[in-house]
Every structure is written in structure tokens, then in C-alpha cells.
């Protein structure tokens, strides 16, 4: 699976072999970074410009949780 931040506030996933669109998840804020943790490749972590951190299901884009890291 390939993941990309697009249009400043959306994450999309494409099949790495076929290039076929799999899912898209939108956020209210600009996306700053995406990461897959080696300890949990089933979750894709997304940080936003407002200091939020989200965990998405890497196969479906389902939002598992969203936390504010801003003080």
C-alpha cells in the first residue's frame, strides 16, 4: 500500500502493485506528516498543523483515535 497526503487535508491510499485507489480520509487541518510505525504496521499515524495526532487503520482509513498534542 502507498500513502500520500493530498490537497493539504486528505490522506489517500493506493495499491502498491496496481495503483488502484483504496481509500481516502479527510481532516479539518493541513496534514504535516504521515508515518507507519514498525511496531504496528496496521496503523498509519497522521499529524496536523493544529497539533493533532491521529491513528488510521492502514487498510481502510478508519479513524481509530485523534488526540490534541498542542498545549
From TrEMBL:
InterPro entries: Quinoprotein_ADH-like_sf. This is Bulb-type lectin domain-containing protein. The lineage of its organism: Bacteria, Bacillati, Chloroflexota, Ktedonobacteria, Thermogemmatisporales. It comes from the Bacteria.
Amino acid at each position: 500500500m502507498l500513502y500520500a497526503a493530498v490537497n493539504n487535508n486528505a490522506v489517500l491510499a493506493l495499491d502498491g502493485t496496481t495503483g488502484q485507489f483504496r481509500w481516502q480520509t479527510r481532516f479539518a487541518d493541513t496534514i504535516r506528516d504521515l508515518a507507519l510505525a514498525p511496531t504496528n504496521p496496521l496503523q498509519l499515524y497522521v499529524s496536523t498543523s493544529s497539533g493533532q495526532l491521529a491513528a488510521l487503520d492502514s487498510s481502510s482509513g478508519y479513524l481509530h483515535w485523534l488526540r490534541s498534542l498542542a498545549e
